[in-house]
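Table S7 (text form). Paired inputs.
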Amino acid sequence: MKTQQRPLLRNYVFVIVTLILWASSFPVVRYALFAEDNPGGFHPASLALLRFLVASAGASVYLAATHAGLPRKKDLPRIGLAGLSGIAFYHVLFNFGEQAVSSGAAAALVAFSPVFIALMSVLLLKEHLSVWGWLGILTSTVGVIIIGFVDVTGFSFNIYALALVGSALATGIYFVLAKPLLAHYSGMQFTCYSFIAGTLALLVFLPLLIRDLGNVSGEALVSVLYLGLFPALLGYALWNTALTNMQTSRLAVFLNVSPIIAAMIAWLWLAEIPTSFTIIGGIVAIIGVLMVQLTGESGDAK
């Protein structure tokens, strides 16, 4: 019995550490971005590029050390699209949105991604959703609207919140593209390949990064190194290790804790106090996502 409990306990430890690392990325990104009160910060695009140059360097070391080799040629287009969406588009949109959206609200908006995954699974993979699943999607959508587009004056358009919703869509596309490839590659292998593909796409921002490196503060530079090595590389490594021994649906439920941890870290470190709309909308959105994840499936397509 004890020998069975040890791997299970180890997996839960990996999940908890990963959630803390991923949640920490929200306030750390906000800290590393250029702002009027932080002139030594990075542009959103150059921040994304440097973060994944660091992560891709670590990924390359892993691939070389494990003799993983190159992916199959026929898989390169799908891996490239996954890297473009889940790494390049996601992180540029995410960084742009965090310029004006608090860390806790940003985490709650990005947590909408399982809803996009469910919708794309229905449309592209011919999976089915139960009535509760569709109600969960509607509930989550209401929560996202409250967080990102409602304030004391009523409904208002917020391009930064919209960018974060776009980043949730981008990461949803990433996981849908990844699903068939994980039959041929380990989770860590695919992560490394997608990191490198996304970084290649982000190289278009290299002139911007070179400009920023001449102006950024040492604190901002250290924060980006942290983002590349820990939330990105180590976080994915721990998550994929846990994924080999736990059900995907059970793991996905843990992601709903991330906005709470992110809000707590931002409150303690950056003194960000969530608004009542963020708290209410976050609760509504997370309830909706849980409905999709726990009660949404009604069986495979015939």
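Next pair, protein 2 of 2.
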Amino acid sequence: MHNALTKKDIELMQKELDERRIVLRPKLLEAVKVARAFGDLSENFEYKAAKQEKNKNESRIRFLENMIRTARVIDEGGKNGGVALYDRVTVYLPEDGETEVLQVVTTMRKDPLKGIISRESPVGRALLGKKLGDIVHIQVDEHYGYDMVIRAIEKGQDDGSIPINSY
């Protein structure tokens, strides 16, 4: 499996990976040593908590290494001026009479509660490449789907301001 990521995604993940390896790992190892010195490990909460934090860091390191190793670098640019990665798209939902602003990003940056959606989500896939005024149909399941109309496209770029997801 390859992860579709931008160069900026990989840079941000590499930066976090370096921070976790060089700065955080030694601190957490030291915290485990100090907590171990408190005595009986079966009733030593500090030791258990320190081990938990160390293991959490090691797990995140493995996750980031795997994401970087399996990455497939993708281009941010859109097709023929249509919706591209990092563009902010204003859509109108006729069924609800509502307008929403969505930003299409890579999976590592998504935050649906803030309107930052993955390019691999049904809405993200449907929006990519579409143009101003297009009606986009989103099929949720075999019984239900809805339409959205693209009202505005604000071209964007990956400036690194959207953080990498923690998990």
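Strands lie at 3-5, 71-73, 88-93, 98-105, 116-118, 135-139, 145-154.
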